[in-house]
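Q: Two folds, back to back.
A: First:
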Amino acid sequence: MSQASSDSAGARHLPFESSGRVAAAIDLGTQTALLLIAERSEAGGFDVLEDHALSARLGAGLVRRGALEDEAIDRTLEILGHFQRRVAQHGVAPEAFTAVGTAVLRRAPDASRFLDRARAELGMEIEVISGEEEARLGFQAVRTDPGNSARPSDGSSPGDLALIDLGGGSVEVVSEEGERRRSFPFGAVTATEEFGFSGHDSSKAGESLDRALAEALSSLEPLGPGARVVAIGGTASNLACLVSGQVSFDPRLADGREVTTEAALEWSERLQGLDLEARRDFAIEPDRAEILPAGLRILGRVLEQLGSKGARVSGRGLRHALVARLLAP
């Protein structure tokens, strides 16, 4: 990847005239930076033109140092500069572009340092959204996915839809058809650092995380009969590839697959017992090898608390809801 440009926002230097039918959204998380570029369709929805997920790891070391690392900031700004150039290539108008930050920027005490550099070096304004807003947007995105409204195989009416959005710095749980939204400060990155999941001895780390999760999740009530659970985020997508026996990680093959609560907890234990190189022999993202055991444990415990045997994995996320809003008539 080329170095991040010190030019102003790419949307201000369009290579061709914007059609007004294309929008773009960036979702900047603790582990991953995502970019979605889409075009309004004739049917009133949108067609995806580009969908990128790059390992920016902005939150690396945040728990340990209590602040953002300079290297993580530089790496993230480089990726955002790359995203910016992709947005410019599609002629996206400034009013049809948005960028939001989630748990990492809610948690970092020096978040303004990163936001100021993004503004000064890229001309990019990044809005830091609350955990509840993150949950609302995630649910809105999966609610419009036709695969999540399909009838069960027995022909009965589908039950309520619930969402688990597990990221690097937090997990959002949405239930009661979107009416109840909760955000918990447990993510794959932060749990790995805070509870000592970096090694391959999982016993003490797992027990400590379990105790913290049990206390935090105690207010989550079990879902009603027939409820459908959708899981989004990198942890869920990696689990889907693991259980499907893929040779290598491919998020396209993860979308729509069913994963079980049991599989999440079993794979957490299995991977935790291996060193990083051995973990990378499986169908997972290489940069996620260190944090995946903790992420899978969180996912499994949340599913247990909800009384669910598993979830459907979706590749959608809040970036889809943001683009839909930008392209709305």
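A: Second:
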Amino acid sequence: MLLFFTVVSTQLFCQKNLEFFKIIPSDTPELFGKEIISDAYGNRDMALAPDHKEFFYTIQYKSGAFSAILFSKKIKGIWSKPEVAPFSGQYNDLEPAYSPDGSRLYFVSNRPIDSSNRAKDYDIWYVEKATGDRWSNPIRMDAPVNSSKNEFYPSITKSGSIYFTREMEGKDEDIVWCASHSGRYAEAVSLPDEINSKGAEFNAYVDPDETFVIFTAYKKTGNFGQGDLYISFKSQDGRWAPAKNLGHIINDKGLTYCPYVSSDRKFFFFTSARWTSPPFNEKQNIASLKKKLESPKNGWDNIYWMDAKSILTLK
């Protein structure tokens, strides 16, 4: 985790504390919050509050053996040191997602649902904004959203509908959605063939107005890496257009996933395990090798961001 013990380290933190959301990044992906958010550990998926004053993200050990949700708050123009979210740190929690109005924060967890204290499969939970900056105790969503299968990566729209990933019989995973009718959810329905296939599609960010969806397709023909990000736009008649690959500038040779677009559509975020690999420019010694291993781009997941314009004009 991120630990700061001395005055010197605090000063270094302040020097590295970027004005994250004041300067729009370029159309080339860059590490987000280098050495504060994106560091030598596994950092992935994030959610920025609609007012841009708070964000949550996941720190995860490789292979998902352990994951916790961290958060940072903007106080007098400065982002605070990341801490474990008040509702996380005991079970495997990941993939935070705000409701469009910021009153709820959804996330995924395998925490127990009864007094047995036995871990369950992964379900979608949420916390509600309480007095001040406090959050309620976690609340598990009922069926038909949650099931006996794993559910991941919630995305909530202004209509109240929820999109998420679900394990499917006879295949790996699909992106599904539950429409909201007077506060009640309809049964989950897979998105059409323009998005889902016989392979694995997962981790979809759906625009709150439901005008576009960005998702990962795993080991799909035409991919630049194992899993690539794609985008599909919805037409005025409600049909999803065939998904387009976001291209090699975004999609690396490994897995590119966990897409997210800020509510003002200025910033595009995603997760990638990019690394600096041999051959190096010069022969390395033990100190330089350790420095590479203890820095971002060491093969662990990290969060990248860029100007969102270039991907939102791919119609």
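Q: And?
A: Residues 219 and 226 are 5 Å apart (CA to CA).
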